[in-house]
Amino acid sequence: MPKLSVLDLCAIVEGGDARGAFARSVALARAAEGLGFERFWLAEHHNMPGIASAATSLVIAHVAAATKTIRVGAGGVMLPNHAPLVIAEQFGTLAALHPGRIDLGLGRAPGTDPPTMRALRRSLHGDVDSFPEDVIELMHYFQPEANARVRAVPGAGADVSIWILGSSLFGAQLAAALGLPFAFASHFAPGHLTEAVEIYRRKFKPSASRAEPHVMLALNVFAADTDEEARLLATSVHQAFVALRRGEPRPLPPPKADLVLSPMERSMLDNALACTVAGSFETVKAGLRDFVTRTGADELIVTAQIFDDAARLRSLEITAEAHAALEKET
Hints:
By secondary structure, the protein is an alpha/beta fold. It has one domain: Luciferase-like domain (TIM Barrel, Alpha-Beta Barrel), CATH 3.20.20.30. The chain has helices at residues 18-34, 56-65, 84-97, 114-119, 131-141, 169-178, 193-203, 227-245, 263-272, 281-295, 309-329, and strands spanning 3-8, 39-42, 71-78, 102-107, 161-166, 182-184, 215-223, 276-279, 299-303. The protein has an eight-stranded parallel beta barrel, surrounded by nine helices. Helix 2 links the parallel strand 2 (39-42) and strand 3. The N and C termini lie close together (7 Å).
């Protein structure tokens, strides 16, 4: 059975604030660590009233300082928003503070809208197209080259695990060409999942970073003591996702038993959130098994935006129990 990791969006819940979101992330990371999860990732988003991890490296530092053994990282940093040297310095600093525990997942989407891209002081033209070159430049800064004219300090020689993220075929091809591990955003963009994994494995070129391909797939998992309760928990994400697609992003709302969706909204959710398991222990166990069998994932990264703190931690606990049961069967 593949290892299990956590993707956290550092959600700001309705009626809450960023400070509360950071506390929730720390609590989730500590729980994940205690349950034996491999890594805990946070994602960069901007101008999103429901996500508090815009300053991703700072939140990673906060979470890493509050934990001891679990790997902590970015899933991911949106490189078009940043100069590669700055990211090398930030993650070099994180690696110096938390040796052997820092991951750096790199994405080429801006993680925001065009007006916010302008506010980030990055060009609207050319940065996405230069993503491969930016990744190579960033990787260069982590090399221990004492005579380089420009060095990342901290950063040069740092032990940072670099991943390529993707929701299309582009990321799969780049990760394969560079010999890097690949994480696919199947939790919200499953359309190219099968083809992306096939391309990555077929075209993978061994590198100093990794001799064999390694693909991590994202899966929404809402677990509870009953199937009905789990499906209710998932309605918070359904509401938030519909609002986002309407161009009206909002904090994470409480679950809603009588949620009414139009046929178009239901179809959109069914497509975007196709990689979702929601249910009790047995349902989650079967869902994890089926997803791994279907995709051949080397690692799973689960995510669940759940409004209630206790329900969120319980969901993680049930997911870990289901995973452990599957490991005993293999």
